[in-house]
Design a protein that fits this description.
Number of domains: 2
Radius of gyration: 19 Å
Largest sheet: 8 strands, antiparallel
Number of helices: 5
CATH class of the largest domain: Mainly Beta
Shape: globular
Number of strands: 15
Helix content: 10-25%
Distance between the termini: 20 Å
Structural class: alpha+beta
Length: 297
């Protein structure tokens, strides 16, 4: 989203400071780009994506130009897509800084969009991301291949300890999954929030999993047999750092904030309906509500 030239200096500095603080708290970011997987894209990651994951001997993933969109989540161009496979596919990437020290908390978020025919692909077409631990265990976040296979879940990679979200997997609909990871001696604590509003406070409750000890966490992965798109992988020390909302053109608190934001969106996208669609809002009303929350009036 563009920031209006008429934005006051103080307001612009305030937004810049907020975005800078979010960047500091956000230790890992992969928005993908058309260079995937050949070059070192993103931040907080070491080396390029490589074929990997349990029983994964291929990584048939391709880069797309347009980012996924979800309720105004801040994004960068690019995404990664996969078709339905007849064998497990996976790609892994090493973190620059290992996670998982006891007594620490980190958040991970990701955008997923089912494609094709739901459950197509071997093992009923699962897809998602993995958080890999040093003890040989992995946390899977996404659409599973068994159990509640048409809901988003967190589970051990392989299906044990599955915790369904109750939120259905819908072909063509982008979902935002956020997991709070509380690392502790023995089993760690994981809380899944499905489709929270970007820029809003952390939800009061979510789906909790407490039967998995990851140890330390040196890498993340993409893991699938079903058709889907994946985008905007973030890991950060705070909830806000992994759910940033893109700023609108108006100055928060200003009397004309709402009008200026609406005008800029209409000009950029050719009308509010097109803006709502491009930014991943379910309706113009949902976009208007997000603008009101941003402006504070």
């Amino acid at each position: 989203m563009r920031i209006s030239r008429g934005l006051t200096t103080c307001a612009a500095l305030a937004i810049a400071a907020t975005l800078t603080q979010t960047t500091w708290a956000q230790s890992v970011y992969e928005g993908f780009s058309l260079t995937f997987p050949l070059y070192n894209t993103g931040s907080g990651l070491s080396g390029a994506w490589q074929v990997g994951g349990f029983n994964a001997f291929a990584a048939g993933y391709t880069a797309g130009e347009r980012s996924l969109a979800f309720n105004g989540l801040q994004t960068s161009p690019g995404r990664v897509s996969a078709g339905a496979f007849n064998a497990i596919n996976g790609a892994i990437r090493t973190l620059t800084t290992t996670l998982g020290a006891n007594g620490t908390t980190r958040y991970v978020s990701v955008l997923l969009r089912p494609q094709g025919t739901l459950n197509a692909g071997i093992f009923d077409g699962f897809f998602g991301i993995t958080v890999s631990g040093s003890l040989g265990n992995e946390l899977f976040i996404g659409k599973p291949g068994a159990g509640a296979e048409e809901e988003y879940v967190i589970e051990n990679r392989g299906g044990a300890g599955q915790m369904p979200s109750g939120v259905p997997v819908v072909v063509g609909a982008t979902a935002l999954l956020v997991v709070k990871m509380e690392f502790q001696a023995g089993n760690d604590l994981f809380t899944l929030y499905t489709n929270p509003m970007p820029g809003a406070p952390e939800p009061a409750s979510g789906v909790v999993k407490s039967d998995l000890d990851l140890g330390t966490v040196p890498r993340i992965g993409i893991y699938s047999t079903g058709a889907f798109d994946v985008d905007e992988i973030r890991i950060g020390a705070t909830y806000a750092s992994v759910t940033p909302a893109a700023p609108f053109a108006g100055a928060p608190g200003a009397a004309n904030c709402h009008g200026k934001s609406v005008s800029a969106l209409a000009q950029t996208y050719g009308g509010l309906p097109a803006a709502a669609s491009a930014l991943g809002f379910s309706s113009v009303g949902a976009l208007q509500n997000a603008i009101a929350a941003f402006c504070g009036n």
